[in-house]
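ok trying again, last paste got cut off:
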Amino acid sequence: MLEIKKMDNFASLVDALAKYQTSEYVGSFLREVDAKNDEFFVVVKKEGKTHVYFVISDNQVALPDLSKLFYAAHLYQNEIYDFYGRTTENFANHTLRLHTHPKDFFPLRKLGKSMVKERQDFIFTQINGEWLVEVPVWPIHAGIIPPGHFRFTVDGEDTLNLDTQMGWKHKGVEKYFYTEKDLNKLLSVSQDIAWDSAIAYAWTFARLIEDAAGIKISKTTGLNRILALELERIYNHMWTIGALGNDVGQSFLLNWYLSIREDLLEVQREVFGSRTLKWVINFWNSAKKLSKEDFGKIENILKQIEKRVKVLAYIEEYSSGVYDRFKDTWIVTLETTSLHSGLGLWAKASKLAMDERVYDKDYLENKVIVKPILGIQWDSFDRFQVRAKEIFQSIALVREVMEKLSTAKTEKEEELKEIKLKDWLYTSFVEGHRWEIFQMMLVENGEISYFKAKDPSFVNWTLIEYAVLKNIIADFPICNKSYDLSYSWTDM
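nice, full thing came through this time. structure:
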């Protein structure tokens, strides 16, 4: 359910938001209305219901500092500053960096003028003391990954502070969504926002379009999407827990996990025509009608995964060398996670029962019930265990969905010749393997006039700055893998 409220001013907006908890905060977003005015959105979610509050205000007036209510709001305020040049009350330094742009250029400010003449440089935290050392990990990483900047301050082996900087390559993806008119091209781009989340991102966008066009997908289509989403979770989790083993010197674990993962990807290619499940999502129906033979191929690979992952997870869990490196490493408490509006496995490992599938309309309509798997002690070992258990949970869900599909009545689906969008504001959530994907879209005069996407990594990157404290830099790869955050999404 979606509730939209226009507020008269920022004071009434802050009053309305005061009743929400930090864990219910989704994000703050801005768009230009005209040369003089901006529209400021705040999205919160409570018990499966989404609330959108908005205020239209002069673009030369400071925005309210919502970080007093929701700590994570400072990230969105920094993003608004970087992209639109609009500040908040008591504005401090920002955390994003658009190093390829001039300091007086704000890439999403096209109609009016920014509040500031020049974007500030990022100022790293300065800690002075004898024997303290700064260790920068520069944007061009030793691995083949998108850019990100990490700067550690260490005292001997203990990490005293970490500054993270993301967003080095602004690709203009969100702007593309309200300039390109071909919806099929937008669907294509949506599945490439984060390459390993083709289903999660494409389904989130498809839901926006389907809601705006009044399209109701069939139960069969919903079941097919659930099946693909759970397969996407399985193949990503296998990579992550294998890589965790590799980062503590057990490379054979990664090799074995990659071997069975490769078998799954090949089955996905045979069944769906894509190893990473691209073009499985259409706006109105299933791109692929699964046959009994397809179900048989999926079941065979599930049996192999179930058998082999059970053995590998046992080795990983009960190996003293692995356990010693995972246990009590990179702890983030329930309180810290909640205050930062943390999402996904980070939240689950910290005992926050947050899983969008619990409220997902297609899961509920098809009676596919998901119970969130939670950790115990908030550390890297918990995050490994939650992932391993989710693999088996997803295997069970895929089997359940295949059973429902095999006995479902044939539903007639008529092809849509034209999609007409109704003017309104739309929001969409899908629980990807990194957890909650959020997208928001405004339709005016039958066309998309504003689009915003958010990956759970956006808020979770800053939580790493808390996880590293009193840990050694050599264990940072364990931290990074146990959270499996997205670099590419930050360059939207």
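cool. The first helix runs from residue 10 to 17. The longest strand covers residues 37-46.
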